[in-house]
Amino acid sequence: MDRRCVLYYGRDCCHSDRALNDYLDRELVNTPSSEPGLQHWRWQRGSALVLTPFGLWFIFQMLLLPDFEYQTVISWLATMFNSFAMTVLLIALLVHSLLGLQVVIEDYIANPLQRTLIRITRFIGIAILAATITSIFTI
Known about the structure:
Helix content is 67%, strand content 3%. It is mainly alpha-helical. It starts with 6 loop residues before the first strand and ends with a helix.
């Protein structure tokens, strides 16, 4: 009977005399995974990489505005670069937040409700994104 052993502090719980280095030549250690979780992880990290510069751009732009009156913000958002950058920021923010919500739902919600809640959050997120992009480009 094949049973899986857990590596605990560099040692195998099944055989205490074997260290982690004994397992480096096995295929189970240090091989890339082709599971769907890897794709999810890559999207999460990619959206975080996009969010970092655009989030900093947004913070600095808000600090440079003289006031936050309606006409000032509309005139700021009416420029081509600012509307494009805001759209990219909102898309990356939506992707990142939906992936995070999916992880929370998968971890803390019972199995029969998981797929339904994930679909509902995606639908709401895409509806919010469509509304915000439409409002940006109507300015």
